[in-house]
Amino acid sequence: MASKRPLLIPSPRTPNSQDLPSIPLYSDLVNPQSQSANFKSFSPMDSNGNNPIENSPIPPNSTTLYSASQRSISSILSANSGGNSVREVNFSDVGTKPVRYGSRGTESEAFSMSQKEINDEDARLIYINDPGKTNERFEFSGNSIKTAKYSILTFLPRNLFEQFHRVAYIYFLVIAILNQLPQLAVFGRGASILPLAFVLLVTAVKDAYEDFRRHRSDRIENNRLAWVLANDQFQQKKWKDIRVGEILKISANDTLPCDIVLLSTSDPTGVAYVQTINLDGESNLKTRYAKQETLSKLPEKEKITGLIKCEKPNRNIYGFQANMEIDGKRVSLGPSNIILRGCELKNTASAIGVAVYAGRETKAMLNNSGAPSKRSRLETRMNREIIYLSVFLIALCTVVSACAAVWLRRHRDELDYLPYYRKKDFSEGKEDSYNYYGWGMEIFFTFLMSVIVFQIMIPISLYISMELVRVGQAYFMIRDSRLYDEASNSKFQCRALNINEDLGQITYVFSDKTGTLTENKMEFQCASIWGVDYSGRKANLQGEQLGYSVQVDGQVLRPKMKVKVDPELLLLSRSGKDTQEGKHVHDFFLALAACNTIVPLVTDTSDPAVRLVDYQGESPDEQALAYAAAAYGFMLIERTSGHIIIDVQGERTRFNVLGLHEFDSDRKRMSVILGFPDKSVKVFVKGADTSMLSVIDKSLNLNIIRATEAHLQMYSTIGLRTLVIGMRELNSSEFEQWHFSFEAASTSLIGRAALLRKVASNIEKNLSILGASGIEDKLQQGVPEAIESLRMAGMKVWVLTGDKQETAISIGYSSKLLTSKMTQIIINSGSRESCRRSLEDAMVMSKKLMTVSGVTHDTGRSSGGAATLALIIDGTSLVYILDSELEEQLFQLASKCSVVLCCRVAPLQKAGIVALIKNRTDDMTLAIGDGANDVSMIQMADVGIGISGQEGRQAVMASDFAMGQFRFLVPLLLVHGHWNYQRMGYMILYNFYRNAVFVFVLFWYVLFTCFSLTTAITEWSSMLYSIIYTSLPTIVVGILDKDLSRRTLLNYPQLYGSGHRHESYNLKLFWVTMMDTVWQSAVIFFVPLFAYWKSPIDGSSIGDLWTLAVVILVNLHLAMDVMRWTWITHAAIWGSIIATCICVLVIDAIPSLPGYWAIFHIGKTRLFWLCLLGILIAGLIPRFVVKFLNQYYNPRDIHIAREAEKFGNLRELGGAEIEMNPILDPSRETTR
Q1: Which residues form the active site (predicted)?
Q2: Higher-confidence position of 1157 and 627
């Protein structure tokens, strides 16, 4: 395995704390005059022109040049320098304030804990190396974790409580309880409870197994060992026994057992590399720092004492606010000083820290809530039909009760002699009433008994069947090799099992751009330097993949990634700073090499003399720019906590890092302050053009600025991501002023993040422009074809991106999202009133275009107006539109457009756009993205899909489904989504049908038995009907059946429209199915009734005939609808019929049960088999005829495609899509 060694570490540092005035514990930081005399001590130049930093007696390899206590702690780390802050996630307490999607300023919510003063009420006090005193006042959480839900004692009551949240289960429980009453006992008491007990048992076993795995995982985690300081030496201790306040020692590749504040590391600079893949999914190394005040302290040799006052536990993994009092000083602590539970220590021999949060109070555990639960739209619609069935059940029971009341009135004088209504009892020697409770109570009891007898009208087995079918569907989706991405070695993941069928009904697709439509693998393409465009035109002909290399300690170091260079620009970069043009090129590439947070790692190759430098960075943009600088001779080869070394055209140059302001989503830029060997100090800034052009000094070189703006426009037009580079030289007083402001801000107790941003903004101004860069983010393979297929399937694709409008439009054209035939409506407004006018004008324009296209549509030359409009709107406009009265106008306009492109949008605005559609229509929404800035959008949509991309796995962890490429969306929706929806819709209707048939047979029998609620079908057959007799075939068909082949569904995306039209499950189908149910039940009951009308056969024998007839008929009904037969389908359907026959034989062979030997008596007669055959023919003929007439005279798209598949003439159907139903044509819309 290639070894990796860290060369450099990004860390903003200020001059040595020994040269700086230390700030007293309670010093007044507001009055700058009080310390003005001391400022000269940290001026970059003394009175003699010497730089105390460069002339420091400390050797270059020393690590005390810069104090860790003065490091910039930007409010939030960012992984995207292009405007998309992948960290902009709100972790404030949900529910305290309504989320405002239109607001750009989410700071008050996202950083609520870091914006307010930490007082004793809002803070926890941690005494370093004194866990007893730390936990004396407040008993903080221990480090034992528990992710399991149940214990041995709580499992049964809690699991049953959770299961009975389903109202249907309560219904069946009430039925079972009623059947236990002597007055209402229709079935045996054991048999009546069996179906519910079976369903509860299956679910409980599944839950118990899942919880057992969680218990096992918790036990392994809690019993892991860590080194904890005890009795002045580090001893091993179980994780679960660690307490807040204890000092821990972490070794390389160890996982952090709790959240610790870093005190020291094996690196003399106090730097630690950590990998947070277990926390946020990102594999890139990140740097954490120990404070200068604790670096030299060795816990084993000297006792460390101090007090940490930090915020209470919260979910914000990117923020931390605390202060540490040690040796009479107060130093500030921020996100860069804490390592969270679950992180791994990498490329650092050891690290020592103090536990501040443990167990369930760690940030990792507080975020361990998972994605929000979503409910299938089909299951929601199913509840409507269950209500109808409930009403129907009540109606049947009412009819039986009313008829029983009439019958009792007519025969009230005969009740003494009837076996079921004996009114007199002479057993005790005196006349007494017996088994009769009066006319009114008898009617009431009849109603309740009817509910018990007809209970399976509500199918209890449907819920467990749906769960099993979804598991099977998920299995085949995961195993689909066409959803496997070889590049990232990522398989399809099904993280939510309850919404599989929703994939077949998607109308709106909301997609991120960077990393979702594009690869998020940035490649430097061109640059504009000092107004000259080096766009690489010559590189297309003469360019070469150049790999710059340097000699270090006898070994050749080369960048891991090669970059295509422009020969003219390469020549200028090698010419040095002798010419004015060469100086500008030098400064430009120096800025690219220095202004970043790149961590260079060296990896071995097969050649021992050659090693590769791998630039590890949180942003692909930064990596691309660093590799580009290296290709042009500015190779970053080392970074320590206080300096960087850049090989400039073969000459190693050391630059002192005097300060670093990292990128944040408010400023949209980052800056670095460098001390040069010639004693000068310069600040280099790079960022988005919108933020950079506002801080460029336009009084200097106005022509250069205008030329650069023109080049930026050109780069954006061809789809490149752009950054602007600027710099200026700082004099002594400017540096002193910055340093004091930075010190005051970094130690502030209130609003530290805002103060640091203000300090950064003050230094990042009056810049001289150096140029701009153009980076290409290539489209993923198959994206244009995928978008075209989705649109042909009737889906509207919206792209929500943080990129510039020009870049987004260019990508829109290259991905075929936008076409030249579309009319673009562009809204870029800076005020609410301007947005209102723009929306009104756009509505007028859209109505005119719709009118014109409508006329064209009548002539048959157009598909309608919706395909001609594209709305392009920016984030600034959305600030004024979302969460205002303008939302409705935006919705009306957007609904008329087939494409919507939102540019420069913040993460919460993405969620707001999804909510705009979701809250106003019944259409299904899908959101797909790859970064943390897509999480809110993914969780807002009905279906959320995460891409396993370059920006970590935050989107994957918050998603319902995850995959490697955007193009996989086509087979996922058009194939698996269609299959899942068709199967689940049919399975629900079939469950309603098969149970209703059985109930109606019982109902007909009641009408012929004086409404006494006796049944000819044995109680065990009644109970086993939904469990054994008919359950397995519907589950197998729900998992395996395919109405159309994968090839057909992909070749004809219009077939996906069946989900939009609800063809597989709708109210019309429900009522048609119920009508068929009534007919089939009548045939099943009356054919044997009339055949055996005057025969001596008993009720048990004819009951067995009805049982077999029902089971065989419903299974043949299912067989008629199977599209793809497999051996499993054959085994399930015919095996269920055989199993039913065996069960009936066994039940009738038990002497203690009613109907002993009945099936053997009736089965010997020829009439039995004739009745069975007649029932099957008469029951299925009407269904067969209706299906034939419907498919022949009113065929749907699926019927046409199926016939074409059957007869093998798909190739001849070149114009098949012309004949298919218009996807959104209301005239073809089925009743929902």
Answers
A1: 512
A2: 627
